[in-house]
Design brief:
It is built from ten helices and ten strands. By secondary structure, the chain is an alpha/beta fold. Strands 6-7-8-3-9-10 form a six-stranded mixed sheet, sandwiched between helices. Strands 2-1-4-5 form a four-stranded antiparallel sheet, with helices on one face. β9 and β10 form a beta hairpin. The longest helix has 16 residues. The chain is globular and about 45 Å long. The relative contact order is 0.18. The model has no long low-confidence stretch (mean pLDDT 93). The structure holds adenosine-5'-triphosphate and magnesium ion.
Length: 233
């Protein structure tokens, strides 16, 4: 397996404020990384740092062995970083089908493969973004990121705020696309059980630093540790 992304001692934040500190990690092609941690520890800031949307104070981020130091966020997207923001951000005045079409780039992911992953989106393909339920918007946000055929997909709390049944539908689909190795992904989640089931590796953040790093199945089996770090019984 080859390394897509690696971070060495990355410290970043906004303005003069340091939010994440001394982060080192690596993501191999076909692998998946869960980023866990309580509210406000810097999970979203870590993703935004990968995308080049924060102020980086120290350290280096490398994409396939090359430093991203002078690569801006537009160029990072072009290199193959896809992003499903915590706020979803679908185009409300476009139909589901159009939302997918406007971002499409050639590759495995097309309307057909996205419809297969989210049959519900196919049923709604002529509906406008603002006519969708929260769950459908999340499916569309993921579908849209997939249509860019990213080499690395960053998902920020894909299940947040969804009703239990639809959350399960999204969880199964995300698990499937990661499990089948069709995308390499970093998944930010507050629910460790869900995230650990989907991923191969995991890190836990505490006040902007990595306080634990493990294989996902090993961490999932350690209830006492999960409880002490994340407060899950
Ligand atoms: N644009 C910004 N400017 C300044 N500070 C920010 C900005 N965005 C976030 N922060 C601060 O950075 C810290 C970490 O926020 P971040 O959103 O990365 O946490 P998080 O782990 O994603 O939280 P949540 O679980 O609530 O999504 C918080 O203290 C927050 O107030
Ligand atoms: Mg967040």
């Amino acid at each position: 397996m080859s390394e897509i992304l690696s971070l060495q001692g990355v410290t970043a934040g906004y303005g003069d404020a340091v939010i994440i500190e001394d982060i080192s990690l690596a993501v191999e092609q076909g692998a998946s990384l869960a980023v866990l941690g309580r509210n406000g520890v810097g999970k979203t800031t870590l993703l935004r740092t990968l995308l080049g949307a924060t102020r980086q104070f120290r350290g280096d981020i490398q994409w396939r062995g090359k430093s991203l130091a002078s690569v801006d966020s537009v160029q990072r997207a072009r290199l193959g970083m896809g992003w499903v923001p915590q706020q979803r951000g679908v185009f409300r005045s476009l139909t589901v089908e159009e939302n997918l079409s406007v971002v499409a780039r050639p590759g495995f992911w097309s309307h057909e493969t996205v419809w297969k992953l989210f049959p519900r989106l196919k049923e709604r393909k002529y509906h406008y973004g603002d006519q969708l339920s929260g769950g459908e918007q999340q499916m569309l946000a993921i579908g849209r990121a997939l249509m860019t055929n990213p080499e690395l997909l960053l998902l920020d709390e894909p299940l947040e705020g969804l009703a239990p049944l639809v959350a399960e539908e999204v969880e199964i689909a995300v698990g499937k696309m990661i499990g089948e190795g069709t995308v390499t992904a970093i998944v930010v989640e507050q629910h460790p059980i869900v995230a650990l089931k989907m991923t191969s590796q995991a890190i836990v953040l505490e006040r902007g630093r990595i306080c634990h790093s493990a294989a996902s199945d090993v961490l999932a089996a350690d209830e006492a540790l999960l409880d002490s770090m994340l407060g899950v019984a």
